[in-house]
Amino acid sequence: MYNLKLSALNLVPIREGEDDQAAIKDMVKLAQNLETLDYERYWIAEHHNAPNLVSSATALLIQHTLEHTSKIRVGSGGIMLPNHAPLVVAEQFGTMETIFPERVDLGLGRAPGTDMMTASTLRRDQHNGVYEFPEEVEQLAKYFGPGNHQAYVRAYPAVDKHVPLYILGSSTDSAHLAARKGLPYVFAGHFAPQQMKDAIEIYKDLFEPSNELSKPYVIVCLNAIVADTDEQAEYLSTTQAQVMVSITRGRMQPVQPPTDDLKGILTPTEFEIAQQRMSSSLIGSEETVKNKIKTFIDEHGDIDELMAISYIYDQEAQLDSYHKLKNVVDTL
């Protein structure tokens, strides 16, 4: 028995033929369905200046999702802290925790979640946000802590709300920080799997127990597409391939329908990159994906939670994929 928890990440993408309002409705519908499947948590990303994503105002989307669900935890995957004053973040998430007790998560990242020109427009200062990340994480922890541990400036109503913090990472840097602060660590294996094994090992080896966590807690985010057969899943995954190539081309196009002619759409180099990325994804039938998860754990060590992201054009097929993934995890 692996005792693996299951959760989901959503970038709130726009599907071809839809608009931003439809993307937000899809976001809510997915959350409601995952809640009925007893998913642990549902996180929403932060991205800016991306015409194919509606995840720029992350806190508003989290609140909207909380209002339309009843028990699933909802949070940020993540808030890109260099873009925001920690005081304002604490006020926002403290307010949501007040309205929706014990349902709010705060995942924190040190990247801007956009291109550098947009980042320069977003940031409170032009240079230091990334380097001040450890201190600002500590500042947030204090804002959510007891009042007698705080200074004059306090983030009401965040005081004593203890909103759980999670450190996000796509390299080994954040693994050191999460370990040193004794916080849960979330690795972005869905887009940056290269340093995943090293980062998880570093986090586990260097972990220092804290008031929040007595032992390491590892969440890994992976692309996941589960269907009745391997062939059907691979067909659906051509949408994921097109999403990834769209990013590398700088086109940021809406989520495209699957295709039987992926080689005809992509250049040979792009096709090879897409194949490599799909090889590190959980794509296949339930039995195939079950074996892939077991292999992943054998290679990377035990993890506590799998966070899935699923780029599937047809929403019903996407919901079915998440349903099948839950079946897989429940029977590991």
Oligomer: single chain
Amino-to-carboxy terminus distance: 6 Å
The SS-based structural class is alpha/beta
Radius of gyration of CA atoms, rounded to a whole number: 19 Å
Global mean pLDDT: 94
Low-confidence stretches: none
The count of strands amounts to 9
Indicate the percent of residues in helices. 40-55%
What descriptors fit this protein?
eight-stranded parallel beta barrel; 332 residues; alpha/beta; single chain; 12 helices
Topology diagram in text:
Elements: E1 5-10, H1 20-36, E2 41-44, H2 58-67, E3 73-80, H3 86-99, E4 104-109, H4 116-122, H5 133-143, E5 165-169, H6 173-181, E6 185-187, H7 196-206, E7 218-226, H8 230-249, H9 262-265, H10 268-279, E8 282-284, H11 286-300, E9 305-309, H12 315-330
Parallel strand pairs: 1-2, 1-9, 2-3, 3-4, 4-5, 5-6, 6-7, 7-8, 7-9
Helix pairs in contact: 1-12, 3-5, 6-7, 8-10, 11-12
GO molecular function, one term: oxidoreductase activity, acting on paired donors, with incorporation or reduction of molecular oxygen
Pfam family, one: Bac_luciferase
InterPro entries: Bact_Lucif_Oxidored (IPR050766), CmoO-like (IPR019949), Luciferase-like_dom (IPR011251), Luciferase-like_sf (IPR036661)
